[in-house]
Amino acid sequence: MIDRQLAESADASTLSSLGARLRQLRARSEMTLAELSLKSGVSIGMLSHIERGQASPSLKTLERLRLALAVPLASFFSPERQEESGDVVRKALRTKLTFDKLGLVKELLSPQGHSELEVLMLVLAPGGGSGDEPWTRNGEKAGVVIEGRFELAIGERVHVLEEGDSFQFDSRQPHSFRNIADGETRVLWIISSDEPG
Predict the structure, then answer these.
(1) What is the tally of structural domains in the chain?
(2) 3 state DSSP class of 138
(3) Could you tell me the CA-to-CA distances from 7 to 17, 50, 56, 98 in Å, in that order?
(4) Which pairing describes strands 140-147 and 149-154: parallel, antiparallel, or unpaired?
(5) Using CA atoms, how far apart are residues 42 and 177, in angstroms rounded to an integer?
(6) Are residues 92 and 115 in the same domain?
(7) Domain holding 153: CATH number?
(8) Average pLDDT, the chain
């Protein structure tokens, strides 16, 4: 019971932190909720719920907001920390985005402020993944399976990757992924973007 309460408290804190970051990014861009809604295609009501920590955005919603605000995905993680001149991220200080419905946690490994290259650790619960709809994004993605088994669909091709296997592809191709192991799967995920922000 106590573990469940701690998990719920951590989830509420994560949502609150994400909401605060979105509000800061919107203010920095000098956008109203209505302007961000129009530019991102996310309803004003949903934006308001996210900013108040009352709703967890989907990966697709975060991507739309990232593009509308012209910022890297890393901007949605907790506020920037000044550590070791912005070159290093200590394991204990990693920031995370949790997507409970997808069975996915994204841990930011890149120091904040580096917008063209983002390095993440994807932690996938059994059956967890990127969701029902394939993704596309300008740039390239690459990675290596650190633990578990990982199914990666790129266009019409489906690859099953085991621990130690790696990949790289043009992320303009529709792609999706999921954990096909009985336990947790961890994937080092690298995004090189040629999009603004």
Answers:
(1) 2
(2) coil
(3) 15, 19, 15, 11
(4) unpaired
(5) 24
(6) yes
(7) 2.60.120.10
(8) 83
Separation between Cα atoms, residue 145 and residue 159, nearest integer Å: 12
Q: Are residues 16 and 99 in the same domain?
A: no
What mean pLDDT is predicted for residues 93-122?
Answer: 84
Q: What span, in angstroms and rounded, lies between the C-alpha atoms of 16 and 28?
A: 18
Is residue 76 included in any domain, yes or no? no
Domain that holds residue 23: 2-71
The better pLDDT of the pair 112, 69 is held by 69
Q: What is the CA radius of gyration of the chain?
A: 17
Please classify residue 141 by burial: count the beta carbons closer than 10 Å to its beta carbon, then call 0-12 exposed, 13-18 middle and 19+ buried: buried
Nearest to 194 by CA among 174, 177, 171: 171
Same domain, 15 and 101: no
Q: For tokens 């993944």, what's the residue?
A: 129
Q: Which one, of 53, 58, 111, lies nearest residue 81 by Cα?
A: 111
Nearest to 171 by CA among 129, 132, 143: 143
Query: For the segment 45-96, what is each residue's pLDDT rounded down to a tens digit?
Result: 889 888 888 887 877 888 888 888 888 777 777 554 445 557 888 888 888 8
Are 114 and 174 within one domain?
yes
CA distance 20 to 99: 17
